[in-house]
Amino acid sequence: MSHNTFGHLFRVTTWGESHGPAIGCVVDGCPPLIPLNEADLQPWLDRRKPGGSRFVTQRKESDTARILSGVFDDGDGPVTTGAPIAIHIDNEDARSKDYGEIARAFRPGHADMTYQAKYGVRDHRGGGRSSARETASRVAAGAVARRILGDGIVIRAGVVQLGPHRIAPDAVDFSAVYDNPLFAASAGVVPAWEAWLDGVRKAGSSCGAVVALEVTGIPAGWGAPLYGKLDAELAAAMMSINAVKGVEIGAGFGSAELSGEDNADEMRIGPDGGIVFQSNHAGGVLGGISTGQPLTARIAFKPTSSILTPRQTVTRDGTETDLRTKGRHDPCVALRGVPVVEAMAACVLADALLRHRAQIG
Amino acid sequence: MSHNTFGHLFRVTTWGESHGPAIGCVVDGCPPLIPLNEADLQPWLDRRKPGGSRFVTQRKESDTARILSGVFDDGDGPVTTGAPIAIHIDNEDARSKDYGEIARAFRPGHADMTYQAKYGVRDHRGGGRSSARETASRVAAGAVARRILGDGIVIRAGVVQLGPHRIAPDAVDFSAVYDNPLFAASAGVVPAWEAWLDGVRKAGSSCGAVVALEVTGIPAGWGAPLYGKLDAELAAAMMSINAVKGVEIGAGFGSAELSGEDNADEMRIGPDGGIVFQSNHAGGVLGGISTGQPLTARIAFKPTSSILTPRQTVTRDGTETDLRTKGRHDPCVALRGVPVVEAMAACVLADALLRHRAQIG
Amino acid sequence: MSHNTFGHLFRVTTWGESHGPAIGCVVDGCPPLIPLNEADLQPWLDRRKPGGSRFVTQRKESDTARILSGVFDDGDGPVTTGAPIAIHIDNEDARSKDYGEIARAFRPGHADMTYQAKYGVRDHRGGGRSSARETASRVAAGAVARRILGDGIVIRAGVVQLGPHRIAPDAVDFSAVYDNPLFAASAGVVPAWEAWLDGVRKAGSSCGAVVALEVTGIPAGWGAPLYGKLDAELAAAMMSINAVKGVEIGAGFGSAELSGEDNADEMRIGPDGGIVFQSNHAGGVLGGISTGQPLTARIAFKPTSSILTPRQTVTRDGTETDLRTKGRHDPCVALRGVPVVEAMAACVLADALLRHRAQIG
Amino acid sequence: MSHNTFGHLFRVTTWGESHGPAIGCVVDGCPPLIPLNEADLQPWLDRRKPGGSRFVTQRKESDTARILSGVFDDGDGPVTTGAPIAIHIDNEDARSKDYGEIARAFRPGHADMTYQAKYGVRDHRGGGRSSARETASRVAAGAVARRILGDGIVIRAGVVQLGPHRIAPDAVDFSAVYDNPLFAASAGVVPAWEAWLDGVRKAGSSCGAVVALEVTGIPAGWGAPLYGKLDAELAAAMMSINAVKGVEIGAGFGSAELSGEDNADEMRIGPDGGIVFQSNHAGGVLGGISTGQPLTARIAFKPTSSILTPRQTVTRDGTETDLRTKGRHDPCVALRGVPVVEAMAACVLADALLRHRAQIG
Predict the structure, then answer these.
(1) ipTM score
(2) Which of A128, A218, A280, C354 could join B358 in a cystine, given CB atoms 3.0 to 4.6 angstroms apart?
(3) Between chains, do C14 and A84 touch, taking CB under 8 Å as contact?
């Protein structure tokens, strides 16, 4: 990962600002002959799309992805050609309003102050480059990555903690995630969570959340020691998502409290002669390489920084002010982060697949 | 990061196995004219060196680093020349014993099974490439990185949780770390922790821990959106350290429970006209770019996988067995992980400095 | 360089096929606060644009570049923000004709056979990804690179050999290049060259050429030993241009015939105390690092592979056939290669500037 | 390629100076289970080794390579493990003499002036990092690369032009190269060339040369458009070798004089149903991808810059002086460049193999 590109062999370069004419990405390194068209991308984009419920931003975007290159239909339907795949998404609801106050003042918790400090200029319109709108490009790229991985690898994520409210580990049910507007990994918590989040929303406040990720079907052997560890790549990918402040693999921070005996994932031989682990504290990775067990991770999102309560801040000219952030915002940015977490996992794994194949054949 | 190299402009490539003739690294991209000799490396290596107390492995290694290239003394003492710096550390206590059982059986929690699955071969002697011995090279590279960063940037880490025992956040005192054999960030906890860890050790068991990191003196503006975020780079670097299972920045997982109001790090203008933050939930990073506040992170280490209690496992030939791991081991691998955490932070920051300078001048 | 990206810190990723909806590129790593708008790109694109004379393809393309991201006007005109700059060029004259024969048969000298062999599929429409149309993206990126380099660095190229006809070294005049339709680096040769090339053109044949490059104003010290040598980077960049088969720096192949005495570029101290070289066989590079003298190179282009004379070839189904390539083609692809050579040089140098600044400050 | 590393997946990082304690390299990304020991490296190193005849430097170096990591013998002989392979070569004849004059004055044609300009310091002892001694590491890495490529890919190079003396293309015989001290690709020219080069040598002068390269056995499909073209990678690799000033592929600069008809490599179907080219002006590469024909290239070396005739130069303090370079030098640095050219070709191809396998499977 560097600058605006991530991945080594499956490489994604994203571009675009929140209120510019468009955003998009270039997906490079894709193997050829994979059936791919725009309809393969859209369902994933629709999951992340704004405006789907009262719990997400009311910005109106169709998030329609167009593929401008890298696929070709020679009579049997469009397939990848091995050439770079350019994906383009128009910004349709970038409002031409007066950004006056935000243009001058730094919104606490946002990247306003740091972009200004680094670059001496920032596109303040809707957060510019640092807007979560950029994650639409990630989701589009993730859809391509899923096609490389195939149906045998199943990537699922969901909200398992909303503010202080948690889903018990044994109650996590990823199949519920896209059937409720909270992306919650349990149908049972939804009514209570909706009521609570309505309170947060109406108060003009916001909350954080934890998203759990589980990937099944990864064969043993993917990843690469020591500085290309699968879990290190995954951690970097997750930490690159807006508002993420923590990543843990398997037992994660909980493993610090375990004894060596309890943490050991013991092994037996299964009926088919393969290795069967008796537990998965490792989260599917040992020494940076996949074990064949499910890859599990948890990702912490901070609360949305845009809130209606005035906060103390300063302007780029060095004067103190108070700022309340009006406009259209997600009360909990983690919700729409769920498809983004899945997409980044897909990209990391597609890259791992190609790298593994390169060295091992 | 890829394969065995990390860093973009300040690049470190490590090599070597636990029981081979030597380990080492090549540090490339270092600016010229920085005074550097072997005496600059040794104090940091001594902190990580085995055999220093009963709480770490009893393997006897002097960990003497030799610099084989990249420095030149033109009369005023050795300085870096801009050429790659090769650092070489002999393995002095690699025992020629019979590894029979470990050669065949996979130690639970170790990378034995995954290396075998990926490569079809593994250097089982002392863990081979996946041994924590490799981290000596990281510490040597980190010492070079510190010279680039200069004295204004202070990197400190320490154990803040040992198994279930925690140091309260307001009791953390990094100045205590290298004065106690537990690398604990508080002198007060040491007697109780020593007694508890003695129990773990004598039982042939092991425990996990959490290491806190704090870096002061980083100016605002380092780091690079979106896929070279300072916190993403740091997370990957930490997750690449043996036994690390979780990384959080600033308030980390705790931020998921905060409201937007509480999480906002408000800003005022200080007496010198600069920005003064009223809190640091962000951990010194917003949008992937440093704020000028201290960079803070916490890193979770799992318990040492080598324990004396027999665990169920399998052999590479597919038979079931029970395995107890004899030999010389750290009861808590996180302890000597403290200087490694510092070193990796130094490398990430030296790289960030060079990258920032490239784009911004 | 890898896949479809070139550059280390100043990074250009291109995408698009000859007859797809558009082509474009993403320019990443650009320093902020550089004034830039579409009018800065267009003059360079116009130089490469097809249809300008009877000596280039008659395809009608306005080659209008749109900037979709990475610049922002905060009141004083648009400047770069440090974010990726997406540049988009529509394909306006991609004809919907029957490609029947070319779809099946491999045009000799083109990449048809190799793309098919590698990918098992190829976008045959107008050459697809391997079309020289892609070089418009390079020219757009080069225009951005020139803004980074500033006016002190002057990059000029021109045709110095057309088929067997050469311009004597001491007659090379780069100021003539864009005043004649042959991009010839001498006004004097134009009438004779035009007559000769008309004959080639009317015969449905094609010819090769040699382009000379000269860059003045590069300070001493750019470049990086050993695998990032300035001349090695330049050679790779040039060899990546369609139809280029040879690159030489300074005296190049001629240096093989020189004695050590004759090849030595002797040095004296100039009136201002700086080093003055007495000759420039080195072409401005020693040990991969710029000397401060002009960077000089020569680039050989093979003849356009598309010719009207039937040539023996085979189809992707393995049958023999004869093929004549109808359609719109440049009789000498090197002519419009001149602005491409300049653009690639600009990109290499902008990257070298940033890399130099990173390590040296 | 960047800094001191080349290759994308098969990555070689070299380190060391001419008169330091040692030189070496780290070869990373090697597939596992390839039989490899030091005896596999030595024959190639012996070909490049100094002191073999009166036509090369008289420095006495055994160039004994030690492998310090990355191979493991589990009972059936040492094989690669997939871990980085550290190779170490001691400097045995680095003379502790007074370098006084060379320390101050810049040798014309050498990198002395540019290293000083860039870094503000240079290890002047024997040329330091810019010495051709570094190429021993390349040859060692190339030996590893050959093991990956296997015996089906045959890489051969030889001198085809010594100063003004050329071997006719149809007289080139690579089998003669290592049977004569001039590395000449024709036994017939050796007596005359020896006599001529003796004259050059005795006069304290030097000469340039052209080395031809031919690689057979590469399947169609290796390489990657557009910025990872096989010929672009090869050009960069060759241009990174000391003293190289030009690279051409296939017909190279000669192709500029060809008509499209003559340059076309026509295709027919062979007896086994495969494609048979009727000529190879392309040098085995079309569109950056291998055609299956032999890869052919020619590389121009400038004369050795170290000569006994005094040349005008300046010191780092800015005074004018005359300098004659005493000491041990190759009268024609291209001769020992032959095994280096082969080694770099091997590294480029091993990398291409891995990259191809990654994307195509």
Answers:
(1) 0.97
(2) C354
(3) yes
